[in-house]
Amino acid sequence: MNHPLLRWTTWASALATVIILGGIGYYAGLFGATEKPDAAAGGDAEIKGTATVTTTDATQGSLSPTATAYGVVTASPQSSFVIQIPRDGVFKAVNVRDGDLVRKGQPIVTVITAAANTTAYAQAKSAVDFATRDVQRLERLFNEKLATNDQVATARKTLEDAKIQLDAQAKIGAGEGEQTISAPFDGVITGLMAVPGDKVQANNQIATLVSRTNLTVQLNLEPDDAVKLKPGAKVMLGNTFGGDQIEGKLRSIGASVDPMTHLVKALCDVSARDASHFELGATLLAKIDLPPKQGILVPRSALLEDSSGPYIFTISDDTAHKQNVKVLVETDDKALVDGVDPALGTKVVVDNNTELDDDTPVQEAKS
Asked: Whose CA is closest to 115, among 125, 123, 106, 127?
């Protein structure tokens, strides 16, 4: 006969067992369910941690640095003509303006000779006429034995001196009432200093006529660049705002540094055909290739920089390696660097490199 208390105890034990087993199953399922997402997340993280990059081979090579300088288009001394008159006068007419392009034979200015010069010429001519008649008179007297050799010689000397004075006045144009000065060749008028009605003094410069077929560009070079260049070097010239470029050649390089600009002056010649592209006085940008340097050639896009300086990423064993480098030469699309360790890979990352860190796992993009 079962005791009621025993039956209740047995029933309670069974119920407790069921509750415990159920709890174990619940928590086992709960923790099992949370482990799977962690594993999945771990797999996703591993995929996301691999960067896809584009690479190219780093190669040994050379690259020429470029010297940049500014210059001004000037006239070549051999193709310039200084316009002046050798006597005093007054401008009657001025037919051109400063900067005008003129043709050979085109009138530039007309000058009326000053009265003082006209008088001097008339006096010199009168002296020659008088001396000529005096020589003739003394020679006639000498033939009649009424004059001595010394008298004839003195008269002849006086005549020669008078002719010299007249010739000097004729050379400066003192005998011309007015004179029109015309262009001796095609060119550009520069530095014009003439106004109708103004006086002009003898031998004062009125203007300069410059031929456009023989222009020179005066450059200002950095001293470090100047010592690396030689006459004959190719120079690419262009306007500072862009546009087409023309080729010139260095004619000469100065041997001293200008105390004001701290730059070295150099002259660059351009061909007659190309000279017409530029105006006198125009400011040009010049680019000159310096002697090439040797190093590792990489695309410009591979070069990055941070507080430690320039660097690149190379690939080895599917891992990115940051390498600090020294930049020797840079152009728009290439860089010549030094300090690359080939043991860390010879393939250089050229795309998606800004998101990389040292030792980042990578895979190369499929082409």
From this structure: 123
pTM listed for this prediction: 0.57
Tell me: the pLDDT tens digits for 267-307? 998 887 777 777 888 899 999 999 999 999 999 999 999 99
3-state SS assignment for residue 326:
strand
DSSP 361: B
Question: What's the rounded Cα separation, in Å, for the pair 97 and 103?
Answer: 14
- Alpha carbons within 13 angstroms on the beta-carbon side of residue 345 total 20
Question: What are phi and psi for residue 21, nearest 5 degrees?
Answer: -65, -40
d(CA 296, CA 339): 9
Q: What single string gives the DSSP state of each residue in 141-201?
A: HHHTT-S-HHHHHHHHHHHHHHHHHHHHHHHTTTT-SEEEEE-SSSEEEES----TT-EE-
Structure letter (DSSP) for residue 290? P
**Backbone Cα Rg of the chain:** 48
Strand order across the 178-182 sheet: 178-182, 107-113, 89-94, 199-200
- In three-state secondary structure terms, 46 is helix
Q: What are the tens digits of pLDDT across the range 232-255?
A: 999 999 887 777 788 999 999 999
Rounded CA gap, 218 and 255, in Å?
14
